[in-house]
Design a protein that fits this description.
alpha+beta; Chitinase A, domain 3; seven-stranded antiparallel β-sheet; 3 helices; 7 strands
Length: about 170
């Protein structure tokens, strides 16, 4: 995962530099306007950078881009399962916006059927087997769309590093 994270970080840093140069003329009092076209350009640049670093990018039927780091050898998540995951969520500029590391032992335990998450995140988790991990690039259409939310601007592609730690039995305490 080190080489993959380095590749993603380099791509994110390049996008951040492009964004800073592009926004260099903006007065601090001006509101930054996000658009679907801007997101499409940034996403294409990020995917090109990752491919140039030698990674194969797969895409789910829903439209989440991903690179598996570890395949895992356990089960896939099924409806009604209780699961534990670790995750780090980033903007395309490399800024961390959310992580499971801030909770207790760093593992977020939940029942996917009982928790509302963005469609792209749910789709990402469904790609993993127990012990598996990967990086998932979620376009805004599968995240917070044209409105944004909770400090996430509209038309923002999100990147998550996720590991499926375990699927818990009914008698395992969440």
């Amino acid at each position: 995962m080190n080489k993959l994270r380095r590749s993603l970080r380099n791509g994110l840093l390049a996008l951040g530099m492009i964004s800073m140069v592009a926004c260099g003329n903006i007065d601090d009092t001006d509101e930054v306007v996000y658009s679907a076209d801007q997101e499409a350009e940034e996403l294409a640049s990020l995917l090109d950078e990752i491919k140039a670093d030698g990674y194969d990018i797969d895409t789910t039927a829903l439209g989440v881009y991903y690179i598996m780091e570890e395949t895992g050898d356990g089960a896939y998540v099924q409806p009604g399962d209780s699961i534990g995951i670790t995750y780090y969520g980033y903007f395309t500029n490399g800024q961390l916006f959310d992580t499971s590391a801030s909770s207790g032992d760093g593992v977020w335990r939940y029942v996917p059927d009982d928790v509302s998450v963005i469609p792209g995140f749910a789709d990402a988790v469904n790609q993993l087997q127990v012990g598996g991990s990967g990086s998932f690039i979620i376009p805004s259409s599968l995240a917070y769309g044209s409105t944004g939310t909770y400090g996430i601007p509209p038309y923002t592609t999100l990147i998550f590093d996720i590991e499926l730690v375990d699927i818990y039995t009914v008698d395992t305490e969440l």
